[in-house]
Amino acid sequence: MAIKGIEQQQIAQRLAQQTEKTRVNVRSLNEECGIFGVWGRQDAAQLTYYGLHALQHRGQEGAGIVSNNNGHLWQERGLGLLSDVFRDPARIDALAGTAAIGHVRYATAGSHGVENIQPLMVNFHDMQISLAHNGNLTNAMSLREDLEEEGAIFQSSSDSEILLHLIRRSKATTFVDKLKEALNIVRGGFAYLLLTPHGLYAALDPHAFRPFVVGQMPEGNYIVTSETAALDVIGARFVRDVQPGELLAIDDDGLTIDSYTRNTALHIDSMEYIYFARPDSTIYGVNVHKARKRMGAALAVEQPVPDADIVVGVPNSSLSAAAGFAEATGLPNEMGLVKNQYIARTFIEPTQDKRERAVRMKLSAVKDVVRDKNVVLVDDSIVRGTTSMFIVRMLKEAGAKSVHVRIASPIFKFPSFYGIDMQTTKELMGANNTLEEMREKIEADSLGFLSVDQLVKAIDLPYDGQGTGLTTAYFDGHYPSPIYDYTASLSNFVAKDLVDFAPEPMTIYHPRQVASLRNEETLADGTIHLDSQTIQGVE
Length: 539
What we know:
This protein is of the alpha+beta class. It has 19 helices and 27 strands. Strands 3-2-4-1-10-9-11 form a seven-stranded antiparallel β-sheet. It has a seven-stranded antiparallel β-sheet with strand order 5-6-7-8-12-13-27, with no helix packed on it.
């Protein structure tokens, strides 16, 4: 299918309209989505529910599960937390079958209606297909307009639906070839799960922006999901990370690992290690908690606080970094802030009074801990700065002598286009203020950030290919790929040589160490096949 361009000015206008509709929570960074799939289990839907529960941190706007019952797909989905959507046990009971895929959503593209809750499902005359997507397509608007001009009718405003249209319009003869053709048209960040009557398919973008892993149950059934934490919850053993450009097919015969492109690179989103992923997850061999501790320790060296008395981490994602900072300095790591675990989400309110009250509902200062202390407040990031200001005020009202804010990541200067809901510089404090201006606005006694170099060293990705293997574009402006429909939104930064875009990869990346790939044998057709029996000898 020929893909025609759209005028960049029109794209920029649409992006601005979309941004105005985007809700922003008090953390100012909205989670990715979480996906989970299993094949060959009598309790497939129930197992998917448990897996999604471990991924609830990645999306809290909606949830859904689609099951495969003897070749017929059945869908249950709704708005809210997973436990709300499936509060009635009958909804899980309705999902009979031996395979399932599931999704927890935070919207990166599209509106917030139930029509955008995934997994999406379509009924063709010859087959059903269900799809779950984690990420954001950077050429979605161009593709959607071209598809609509050719007669396509979309049921949602989500960019995820585009792949289904591309699959159906392909002239290839087999489903796998249709899927490969479609995957080579879309751009950006994507981890896809597709369920058909005959198999479960998983595909990762050529840059591996999003985490994606394969696990195996003791009985031999394969799992594909967003994080290893979901494997641990259901008792599955980690097998391997899905590699960039790979297409996995799982059916009754086992797992076949193919690729839809050989032009790949490794650019894991560094924000997964900084903020999004669970601390008990491991991404490409790097445990998230340990990486965050190393970030905190590096921060203590780069941005010391000479007269500090205690270290306080902002719950929950900053607690690991705070522990690293405290260990490196020998300072007490105190619980100076307590989070109300029963507040699911709190969105920014229209007035300052309501915004501050929303933060106070989520966090409380422990007065007896912080009173008369010089506090090092460790957080993972500053995006808008609103929450940081409220927390600094809270600690000082609780009696803190001084509050020195230390951020275990670099300054967030540029937007994300690969899956994080932050696609404009308008609300990025680091893009619009000097360091001193930022310090004044959050009312801290001092403010310091981790450098990009030390962030990369702290993550310590076992990779020796070209580049770092990480995406740090939000901090340094070096985007690892073109951003297509979003290019106009960064034109001012490009003109000032603050931002640049690498071309799409033309070579195959080579990781230094992927232990789970050592014993895999490439077959004559270029694929890797693992049968459905439990794999032995995988490290």
